[in-house]
Amino acid sequence: MRNIYDLSADELVDMLAGWGEPSYRARQIWEWLYRHKVASFDAMTNIPRGIRERLAAETLLGNLEEVSRSVSSDGETLKKLLKLNDGVLIESVLMRYERRRTACLSTQAGCAVGCAFCATGQMGFVRNLTSGEIVEQAIHFARELESEGGRLSNVVLMGMGEPMLNYDAVLTAIRRLNDPHGIGIGQRHITLSTAGVVPGIRRFTAEGLQVRLAVSLHAATDELRDRLVPLNRKWPLADLIAACRYYVERVGRRVTFEWALINGVNDTSEQADALGALLGGLTCHVNLIPLNPTDGFEGRPSDPARVRAFAARLEQLGIPVTVRLRRGIDISAGCGQLRAAHGKSNSKHV
Ligand code: SAH
Ligand code: SF4
Fold it and tell me: Which of 86, 262, 290, 346 could cross-link to 299 by cystine, CB 3.0-4.6 Å?
């Protein structure tokens, strides 16, 4: 059965037209889906019962079922494990900052890129999410926030999966998230994070959106990056940084580089100097995040003194840098970790 969140507004009109219903019915249903964010067709009170019954018989109102939730000890990070209707599990996270409410969404179940340090990479690829399944994660949190008088303000595509390897669904989802008749989140409040799929970055740049781009860099030499982020063998650093320069020139926004600090591995002065040389003259920002340890990777988070020294060296080299504390570390809110903890046995064949 088709998930109603996979339909565009035009497709919903077409479906209703096929049932002999006028287009204003489709608009009403759309409002129930995106404005009121109802959890059942029965809640669509101005829609005749016959149409509601047909909707329920022929479509799914969403594909996500909450399996578990965990809240960090400071109460600011909420992590959900969600089950898709074929039983596959994904995770999504809501982070409450002072003013922002940011949802971290998954774009795939599992991930084929296989970054050594990443819990999602360690579990392998399961399947792509549909655009509706991506949008629905945002609806899920927005519904919860609105019930407490709040509102979802930002979205980051930094959950499970590599967004650029599910390009079409991700772009459709971004447009729906941004659409004022959809969820209505400003383009500048949406961030796509990629491990460095160069053709994807170029295609994304050419879309002419103002969506932010984050690139998970983690190493400034090909030798080290080949080991940490395996797709570097296909798209090495020179090509990646050239694509980032193209983004900055075309879109006029800075690129954010993510860097998980691994003790003694990528927190050396050699890596800092190589990074400074690589990023020279590029409008960018580096986010340093101490590694979140995972079972499948031996590396440890950098000692605080090494974090400070690495950040100080970048500053000296004129690279804007922020050290981020891992949010929700006590609930394993790192990429893929709740999912991994829930049971590795059903990762591939659920
Ligand atoms: N696939 C995309 C987006 C999802 S990963 C990407 O790689 O960019 C979101 C971020 O979490 C990435 O920056 C990734 O490198 C980082 N990450 C993954 N595992 C981590 C870990 N164990 N500790 C710190 N950061 C991690
Ligand atoms: Fe995939 Fe991103 Fe994890 Fe790498 S860090 S394995 S690209 S989800």
Answer: 262
User: Which listed residue (31, 65, 91, 146) is catalytic?
Assistant: 91
**What structural domains and CATH numbers belong to the chain?**
2-60 (1.10.150.530), 65-347 (3.20.20.70)
Six-digit token string for 97: 């900052």
Q: Is the CB of 340 under 6 A from ligand 2?
A: no
Going by pLDDT thresholds of 50, 70 and 90, the confidence category of residue 337 is: low
CA distance 243 to 300: 31
Residue 51, pLDDT > 60, answer yes
Q: Compute the distance from residue 119 Cα to the ligand 2 centre, in Å.
A: 8
- The verdict on the CB of residue 125 being under 6 Å from ligand 1 is no
Task: State residue 273's pLDDT score.
Answer: 98
Nearest CA, atom 4, ligand 1: 158
From residue 246, give the alpha-carbon distance in Å to each of 213, 225, 251, 253. Answer: 12, 21, 8, 11
335 has catalytic annotation: yes
The number of the ligand nearest the C-alpha atom of 294 reads 1
Q: How confident is the model at residue 344 (pLDDT cuts 50, 70, 90)?
A: very low
193 Cβ inside 6 Å of ligand 1: yes
Q: Is the pTM of this model over 0.90?
A: yes
Q: What local confidence, expressed as pLDDT, does residue 329 receive?
A: 55
335 CB within 6 A, ligand 2: yes
CA-proximal residue: ligand 1, atom 19 (nearest):
118
Which two tokens mark 185? 């989140």
207: annotated active-site residue:
no
Q: Is the CB of 162 under 6 A from ligand 2?
A: yes
Cβ neighbours of 316 (radius 10 Å): 11
